[in-house]
Amino acid sequence: MKNFYNNVLLLLFALTFVNFSTSPVNAGPYISPKSSNGIVYPTMQYPDTIPKPVIDLNDTTYQRRLATINAAEPHHNIYLLDISNSMKEESRLDSVKTGLHYLVHLQRESDRVSVITFNDSAKIILQFVPSTERETIISSVDTLITKGSTNVQDALLDAYKIVDSTRHYQGKTKLVLVTDGLFDLSKKIRKKIETYDKAGVPLSIILMGSLHDVETIEFLEKICEKGKGQFYYMRKHNLYEVLVTEASE
């Protein structure tokens, strides 16, 4: 009889283990609602895929950044987002998504957002959208996934086409390239970067990732020099602060 009870206990333990071990990996914390008969049944609550920024309207940093945006001339920022495989590392792409969530909550209707993604090829996913259309911007950015290699040249060509089609904009237009490494640039593209800078359209680069060699940093710095934009190595900067700076200066 003792062996029988021991076997029953072992079976119950095994069933319990199987039940919980088959729950999805990376699931959120357990919550334990009570049923009508008072028994607690554990259920799973899943976190959002993209972490949402904490926005406290009374926070002094938020207020300072909001004042900075409001004091600036209208901005049309064209974001060129690297969505190649490596942008999955260190949650780099997710960090960019969260940063854009934060930024558009600060911006005005007069501000505009364009987004071009690039991996093996380039794709325009948002073009000259008012920053106050937050749901459209956020939902478009949140669907992005990482795959493929890094073809930034087609993205730059698309960006300059958007610049040409929005010459009527009464504000400042800038290109903000977000990547995590080296890429190829033809002489033709380098010439375009210089030409559009002279027309008042600078190119800034945000380098994601915590560790990069000197070659990568110097290469990207030289591109920014040609485009009269700023270079930001995110190991040394706050992404929210960088995005606000690029949307206000």
Element layout with pairings:
Blueprint: H1 2-21, E1 30-31, E2 43-44, H2 60-71, E3 75-82, H3 92-104, E4 112-118, E5 122-130, H4 134-142, H5 152-165, E6 172-179, H6 187-198, E7 203-207, H7 214-227, E8 228-233, H8 239-246
Parallel strand pairs: 3-4, 3-6, 6-7, 7-8
Antiparallel strand pairs: 1-2, 4-5
Helix pairs in contact: 3-4, 3-8
CATH superfamily of the largest domain: von Willebrand factor, type A domain
Percent range for helical residues? 40-55%
Radius of gyration, taken over Cα atoms and rounded to an integer in Å: 24 Å
Q: End-to-end distance, in Å?
A: 81 Å
Instruction: Report the CATH C-level class of the largest domain.
Output: Alpha Beta
Architecture of the largest domain in CATH? 3-Layer(aba) Sandwich
Order of helices and strands: HEEHEHEEHHEHEHEH
Spatial strand order of the main sheet: 5-4-3-6-7-8
Q: Could you say which overall geometry the principal axes of the C-alpha atoms support? A: globular
Q: How many strand units?
A: 8
Please tally the helical runs, counting DSSP H or I stretches of 4 or more residues.
8
Mean pLDDT over all positions: 84
Would you kindly provide a written description of the structure presented here, covering whatever features stand out?
It contains 8 helices and 8 strands; from the N terminus they run αββαβαββααβαβαβα. The protein is an alpha/beta fold and 249 residues long. The strands form 2 sheets. A 6-stranded mixed β-sheet has the order 5-4-3-6-7-8, with helices on both faces. A two-stranded antiparallel sheet has the order 1-2. β6 (172-179), α6 and β7 (203-207) form a beta-alpha-beta unit. α3 (92-104) runs antiparallel to α4. The chain is globular and about 45 Å long.
